Amino acid sequence: MTRGAALLWLLLLLAEGGPKASVSNLQVAVDGERALVSLVLRNAFDGALLARLQSGLPTEIVYRFELLRDRKRWFDRGVAENTLEVAAVHDAVTQETTVNYRLDGKLIDTRTVRERPAIERAMTRLERVPVFSLEGLPRRQRLLVRARAEFGTRMVLGLLPARVATAWAESRKFRPAAPAPSP
Amino acid sequence: MDLRDRLLRHRKDTRLIVGGLALLLFVLAAAFYLLQRGRDLPAVLVANRLLLFVLWYANVVLILIVLFVLLRNLFKLAVERRHRVLGSKFKTKLVASYIGLSLIPVLLLFLLAAELLQGSIDRWFNAPARPVLEQGSAVAQALYRRVEEDSLRAAGRVLAEVAELDLESPAERTALARRLRALAAEHGVDLLAVYEGTEFVQAVVDPRAGLPDLPEPGRDLLEEAVREGRALRRQAPPGGRGRLLLAAAAEPGERLELTTVVVAGDVLEPALAGRAEALMQGEQSFRQLEVQKDDLRASHFLIFLMMTLLILLASSWVGLYLARRVTVPILALAEGTRRISGGELSHRVDVEADDELGVLVSSFNRMTAELEASRALLERRTEELLEARQLAAWNEAARRLAHEIKNPLTPIRLAAERVLRKQRAADPGLGAAIEEGVEVIVREVGAMQAMVDEFSRYARMPRPRPVRVDLGKLVDETLHLYRGVKPGVAVEGAVAPELGEVWLDPEQIKRALINLLDNAVEATPPPGRVELRAAAADGHLEIRVADTGPGIPPEAKEKLFLPYYSTKGRGTGLGLSIVHRIVTDHQGTIRVEDNRPQGAVFTIELPLQA
C-alpha cells in the first residue's frame, strides 16, 4: 500500500469516529398471518442528527427489512423486502415534533412528541410493526428477518457524500403460525 | 479518408461544436441559476443530499470525459508526430497552447473562487447573526413560557378551588361560572375551562380575546395533564390569527375519567405573536443553514468544479477543432504541392476556408492554373518550334540533296557536251572522248545511286527491337574494327563491369557506335587517341565517345545531327543523323561537347530499363 493510500485510509477511519450505530434486540412475533417486528436502533441519535432535527429539516431514518428463508445459499434465501421510513419534523414555535411512519410508502402512524427522549424513542424504537405478511408461506419453513437502518448521508473529507447505515442485524429463526382452526 | 471527406467531416464538426457550445452555455446558465437559488432548493433535494450526489457523479463523469478527450487526442497527436504526419507539430503546438492558456487561468480562477466561497460561507456563519437570532428566539420563547406559566398558575388555582365543589350540583355550577370569571379577570387569562375527564363542565372566555368559540384542547392535552399533572400546548386559535397558549392542570396519577382537569389559555395578539414567531423561525432557519453548511460548501465547490471541467472540456475541444481546421488546409496544400511537383498541374486544392488560409488556398489554385496555362503554351510553342526546325531541317536536307544530285550532273553534262562537240567536229579523238565520257557518267551515276540508297535506308530505318545484350562484348566487337586502322591513333574502350547485360537493339547501337567511331578516327590526326567508355550514371546507361581531334566549332554543334549536314565537305551527311535517330528511338539523348583538353566528346544516354 502506498503512503498516500494509507493516509487516505487513516483519514477515512478518523472521519468514521464515534460509537457505531447498530440495530439490536431485533425480535419477530408472529401474529396470525403477520410478522411483527420490534427493534432498537442504538447510537444513531447523535449531535448531528439532533441538530438537524432541531433545525426543522425533515430528518429521516429508513429501516430496511428482509424476510429470509433459513437456507445456506444467498440466492435461495429471499422471500420479501420492505421499508419503514420514520421521518420527523420539528416545529420551533409549538416545540412539537411530528413523527410520521410510512411502511412501504403508506402512512401507518403519526405521533406528536415534545421532549428529546420521547423523540429519540419514537424514532429508534419500533414496537411490533407489521412489516411482513406470512400468508401462503409453508408452515414448516423456518424464516428469519434481517434489518438495518439508514440515517441519511455524511460527508467524507468534507466533500464526498456517503450513506450512513448500520450493519445488518438478524432475528432468531421462526416459523409461520399454524392456521387458526375453523369455527 | 481523402481531403474532401475530411472537409465534409469538418463541416459536421462545426455544427457539433456550435451545438456543444450552446449546450455548455445552457448547462452553465443552469448551474449559475442553481447556485443563485441554492437556498431555495427543494427540501427533498437538500434533505437527501440528492443534489450532492448528482453533482458528485456529474463531476466524476465530466472528469472521465475530459480525460478521455484529452488522452485520446494527445495519443493521436503522439502517433501522428511519430509517423511524421505533416502538420502534427503545428497541431501539437496549437492544442498545447489552447489547453495551457485555458487550463492555467481556469484552474487559478477555480481555486480562487473556491477559496473565496469557503471564506464567505465561514464568514456568514461567524457573523454576529447567530447570537442575535438565538437571543431573539430565547426572548420570544421566554415570553411564551411566561404566559404559559401564568396560565398554568391560574389553572392550578382554579383546580384547587374546584376540588372543594360538588360539580353535580346546579347551584354550585352557577357559582363556578361566576368564580371562573373572577379568577380569569384576576389572573388576566382569556380562557378558563373545567373538564371532568373529557367531559366539558364549565368555561369562561374573555370576549376581548377575539375567540369566536371555545377552543377544543384535545384529548391528548387532557391525558398528558392527568399523567404528568400539567401540560402545555401552543396552537392556532379558532379564529386563525395570533397564537393560543393553553395550560392544563390536574391531580396526577389518576384515571382521566375520574379526574378534574382545568385548562387556562391566553391568546397572543397577532402582531406580537407574529413577531415572536418570526424570531423563533428565523433562528430555526439559521440552524437549517448551519446544518447544511457543509452540504452548501460541497455543493458550491462541486458546481465550481463542474463549471471548470466544462470550460476545460470546451477549451480543449475548441483547441483540437481549430487545430484540425488549420491543419487540414495545410495538409491539402502540401498534398497539392506534391502533386504539382509530380507534374499533375491540373490538381486543385479543394478546401473551403474563409480566412487567410482560404486566401492562401485561392492563391495556390490560381498559381497552379497559371502554371498549367504556361505549360500548355510552352508545349504549343515547343511543338511549333520543333515543327519549324523539322521543316527547316528538311529544307536544308532538300537543298543538300539537290546540291548533291547537282554535283554529279555537271560532269555528266560536260562529258556529254564534249562527246557531242567531238562528234559534230568529226574529231578523230571522238572514240577516246566517248570512252572517257561514259566512264565519268557511270562513276557519277554510281555515286548518285549510293547516295539515294543511303537516304532510302535512313528513311526506312526500322523501329528498334531491344533484347538483352552483353554491352562489353558489343563494344569489343565494334572497337575491334578500328584497331590499327589509322597509324598513330589509339582506339581504346572500357565498359563498367557492373553493367552486365542491358536492353537495346544490338544492330542499331553497333551502327551508331560505328558512325561515331568512324567520324572520331577520321577527325583525329596522329598522334591521337579515341576512347569509348560505357557506365551507369543516375539510372541511365551513359556511352561516351571522345577523340583528341580539332573538335566541333560552336556554330556546327546545333546542326550536327541534321540530315545532310557535314563539316567534312564529303560523304552523305547522314551519319550523325542516323545516330541521333537510333538514340531517339531508344528513348535516349545524345549531346556533343568539347573534350578537355582537346577534341570532341559525344555522350549518349539510354534508359537502363527494358
Can you describe this structure?
With about 180 residues, chain A is an alpha+beta fold. Chain A has 3 helices and 10 strands; from the N terminus they run αββαββββαββββ. Chain A has helices spanning about 5-15, 45-55, 115-125, and strands at about 20-30, 35-40, 60-70, 80-90, 95-105, 105-115, 125-135, 145-155, 160-165, 170. The mean pLDDT of chain A is about 85. In chain B, about 65% of the residues lie in helices and about 15% in strands. Chain B contains 15 helices and 12 strands. Chain B has helices at about 5-35, 45, 50-80, 90-125, 130-160, 170-185, 220-230, 270-290, 295-340, 355-425, 430-460, 470-480, 505-525, 555, 575-585, and strands at about 190-195, 200-205, 230-235, 245-250, 260-270, 465-470, 490-495, 500-505, 530-535, 540-545, 590-595, 600-605. The interface of A and B includes residues 55, 56, 57, 60 and 92 of A.
- How are strands sequenced across the largest beta sheet of chain B? 2-1-5-4-3
Assembly context of the chains:
heterodimer
- β-strand percent of chain A reads over 45%
**Using DSSP, what is the number of strands of chain B?**
12
How far is the first residue's CA from the last residue's CA of chain A?
70 Å
Q: Roughly how many Å apart are the termini of chain B?
A: 37 Å
Cα gyration radius of chain A (Å): 19 Å
Compute the average pLDDT of chain A: 85
Count of runs of 4 or more consecutive helical residues of chain A = 3
Give the helices and strands of chain A as they follow along the chain. Answer: HEEHEEEEHEEEE
List keywords for this structure.
heterodimer; A: 183 residues; alpha+beta; 3-stranded antiparallel sheet; globular; B: 610 residues; 5-stranded antiparallel sheet; 15 helices; 63% helix
List the helices and strands and how they pair.
The complex is a heterodimer of chains A (183) and B (610).
Chain A: H1 3-15, E1 22-31, E2 34-42, H2 47-54, E3 59-69, E4 78-91, E5 96-103, E6 106-113, H3 116-124, E7 125-133, E8 143-156, E9 160-165, E10 169-170
Antiparallel strand pairs in A: 1-2, 2-7, 3-4, 3-8, 4-5, 5-6, 8-9, 8-10
Chain B: H1 3-36, H2 43-47, H3 50-82, H4 88-126, H5 129-162, H6 170-187, E1 191-196, E2 199-205, H7 219-228, E3 230-235, E4 243-250, E5 260-268, H8 270-291, H9 293-341, H10 356-424, H11 430-459, E6 467-470, H12 471-480, E7 489-495, E8 501-504, H13 506-523, E9 528-537, E10 540-547, H14 554-557, H15 575-585, E11 589-594, E12 600-607
Parallel strand pairs in B: 7-9
Antiparallel strand pairs in B: 1-2, 1-5, 3-4, 4-5, 6-8, 9-10, 10-12, 11-12
